[in-house]
Write a structure and sequence with these properties.
Layout: H1 8-14, E1 19-24, E2 29-35, E3 44-45, E4 51-57, E5 59-64, E6 67-72, E7 76-79, E8 84-89, E9 95-101, E10 111-112, H2 115-120, H3 133-138
Antiparallel strand pairs: 1-2, 1-10, 2-9, 3-8, 4-7, 4-9, 5-6, 5-8
Length: about 150
């Protein structure tokens, strides 16, 4: 197995997709995100796991169980299991961040260019990891640097 060894700051800043699954392990998943000015992830609650976020560029707010906290570049956020949460871009430029899910939440390799694409896509984790035999053969690591169409 090769794992994941890349410059996470550069990958996150270069990412233009709302959601881009960068790596899926058996128990952990790395997802890059880009929120346009005024855009939000959308309120959600994960009952069975905590979630980690790191902001690489931009500014916004995180809402955890109704409490709002300003966030900016280099901030880390940990959302406890069971907490309702949302991240909102309050800046005038794109908010670039990445998140770690444990266990994985999305299908490996999924790229949703926009929030609307994410809402319209069936992307729940199907048990296939980045290094699963069927997935590894078809997935190009270079594709992570590609910008989504549109």
């Amino acid at each position: 197995m090769k794992g994941f060894v890349e410059d996470i700051e550069d990958l996150t800043i270069e990412n233009a997709a709302f959601r881009r699954v960068a790596y899926t392990g058996k128990h952990l998943q790395l997802v890059l995100m880009a929120l346009k000015a005024g855009e939000e992830i959308g309120a959600e609650t994960h009952l069975g796991h905590d979630q980690f976020f790191r902001v690489e560029k931009g500014k916004g707010e995180v809402w955890i169980d109704g409490e709002r906290t300003k966030i900016k570049r280099d901030d880390a956020i940990v959302v406890p299991a069971g907490a309702s949460h949302n991240i909102v871009n309050t800046g005038s430029k794109s908010l670039k961040l990445y998140t770690l899910y444990a266990p994985p939440q999305h299908r490996d390799g999924v790229v949703c260019a926009t929030k609307a694409d994410a809402a319209a896509t069936e992307e729940h984790f199907d048990g296939k990891t980045t290094e699963s035999p069927a997935t590894a053969k078809s997935k190009s690591r270079q594709g992570i640097h590609d910008k989504p169409a549109g």
